[in-house]
Write a structure and sequence with these properties.
Blueprint lengths: L10 H7 L16 E4 L9 H9 L4 E2 H8 L3 H13 L3 E4 L12 H13 L1
Length: about 120
């Protein structure tokens, strides 16, 4: 069995990065939520926050941020919630897909007739 990257991660470091929290306060972040920076990083910021702010100068999905930082999604969500609360990033949820419109039944019949002629 190949060890996963997390198996080599120091649990103490993850505890420190998240301030001891194990869950994000906000459930509105999913893997495809786009994160966008609203400001530049400030001196003295935690390095993970700085990297997120720099990466998100252009919209970036939560899953992409997690992969780039090589941190578990749960840890990244905690960090993003901190940045959201501070107003340093914004989250843009993808718009729900518009309900598909069914083709006109007359058109479907014409397609069926055409297929039968083949």
């Amino acid at each position: 069995m190949n060890p996963r990257p997390l198996d080599h991660e120091d649990p103490d470091r993850l505890y420190t990065v998240t301030g001891g929290r194990s869950r994000a306060d906000e459930n509105s972040l999913d893997l495809v939520t786009l994160i966008v920076s609203e400001c530049d990083s400030a001196p003295g910021m935690q390095s993970e926050y700085v990297r997120i702010i720099e990466m998100c100068a252009r919209p970036m999905a939560v899953a992409e941020i997690s992969a780039a930082l090589r941190l578990p999604i749960s840890v990244v969500k905690i960090l993003l919630c901190d940045l959201l609360d501070a107003g340093q990033v914004t989250a843009r949820n993808p718009a729900a897909a518009a309900p598909a419109q069914l083709p006109d039944p007359k058109t479907l019949k014409q397609v069926l007739v055409g297929l039968r002629k083949l």
